[in-house]
Design goal:
about 140 residues; mainly alpha; two-stranded antiparallel sheet; 3 helices; globular
Length: about 140
């Protein structure tokens, strides 16, 4: 079973925004939007880990959710098995994308990791998929 580990800390510059706002985090273990375990920064395979300030670390987690939702929506659109095959999961993904959009809209400095326009386009794609009669309920 994969368990959460404490994030490592490093002084220095954030790899996303470039600011020196410590402490910086390297998050390696967790679960994706669909509850699947992942290990993004296993020491044996990642020779140059990225370090993020608290805000960018949060945005990196949001970016992972967006990437996962987009990948599953691409599968669903192509008629392949997808985590979004059920109406409940489509609705959950829609709510999450709206949350992410609101977070980005409320963040004064913007995000270098996520484009709000891309999020809004993904929301529109998801809405179109929800309206499609091919989605099993």
């Amino acid at each position: 079973m994969l368990t959460e580990t404490k994030p490592e800390f490093s002084p220095g510059r954030c790899d996303a925004c470039g600011l020196e706002r410590g402490p910086l985090l390297k998050l390696s273990l967790g679960k994706d939007f669909f509850g699947r375990a992942y290990d993004r920064l296993s020491p044996a395979s990642d020779q140059s880990p990225k370090w993020y300030c608290e805000t960018c670390s949060m945005h990196k987690n949001l970016q992972r959710d967006v990437r996962d939702i987009r990948a599953e929506l691409d599968k669903l659109s192509a008629g392949q098995p997808s985590q979004l095959a059920g109406t409940d999961q489509l609705q959950r993904a829609h709510v999450r994308l709206r949350e992410i959009s609101a977070i980005l809209d409320g963040h004064v400095a913007g995000s270098r990791l996520l484009d709000p326009g891309d999020i809004k386009a993904l929301i529109h794609r998801l809405q179109a998929q929800q309206a499609s009669p091919s989605v099993p309920g």
